[in-house]
Amino acid sequence: MSKEQYLTFFIGREEYAVNILRVREIIEYTDVTRVPGVPAHIRGVINLRGSVVPVVDLGAKFGSEHAVLSRTSCIVIVEIRIDGQLLVAGVLADSVSQVIDVGAEEIEPPPPFGTGVRVDFLTGMGKIDSRLVLILAIDRVLSPVELQETIEAVDELAAVEV
Question: What is the CATH number of the domain that holds 108?
Answer without folding.
Answer: 2.40.50.180
